[in-house]
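Thread: Newbie trying to understand structure tokens

Hi all, I'm a second-year student working on a class project, and my supervisor (Dr. K.) asked me to get a predicted structure for one chain before our next meeting. I've only ever worked with sequences, so writing a 3D structure as a token string is new to me. If someone could post the tokens and maybe explain what I'm looking at, I'd be very grateful. Here's the chain:
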Amino acid sequence: MAELTIDAVVFDVLGTLVDEPAGLREGIGALTPSPALDAPGTERLLLLWQQHIEREQRRVVDGDRPYLPSDALDREAAEVVARAAGAEDPGAVAAPDAVETLARAARRLPPWPDTVAGLARLAGHFPLIGLSNASRTALLELNAHAGLRWHQALSAEDARTYKPDPAVYRLAVTVAGLPPERLLMVAAHAWDLRGAQALGLRTAYVARPVGDPPTASDRFDLYAEDLADLAGQLGVS
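---
Reply by user tm_fold:
Sure, no problem. This is what the structure looks like when written as tokens:
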């Protein structure tokens, strides 16, 4: 690996710093508290949510639908989940306010155990930039709920598209005022790192129980078990 010299660290948020499935499971459980919805049922609804978000964000990136912020896509996903929950348990059909509450669950996601301390450790040595597909409003609530520390938090809403569109990564490059190769993109999703890599950013994969693991053909600059491991590899004591 070539020598790694960086001046700022860019972090993905959803899945990398916060446990998105855990927060959504809690929201789904509040939507359908009936005993008829068992753990496998919850996982089916969670998968429906994730598939909807992934598909619709990809349609935006591909130009197949106009840009909508993550808030709107979350509301769509919540409606999909509520309808499916009613199909599994006809007595659990959700009221509109319950659907809205479920949609907002996407903003109340718990941090991974190492996240807060890891960001604080790195923030003493590098400017930290959050770069998320979450909307500006959602990102504000995510940061507050999870206690995330940033020097700058950027939303894909400012580019009116979603990662892995190069325009989103360009937001971080522009704000940092640095050549792309002086920025390190950190994510638990290999697809996200590939997008950053295509624009010239350096890359670090952090393993999480959720996410998109690297394939045999991926060549990222760093591979870390968690943020403490990442800090150590970057020489941060």
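A couple of things are worth pointing out once you decode it. The mean pLDDT is 92. Residues 39-61 form the longest helix (23 residues). Feel free to ask follow-ups in this thread.
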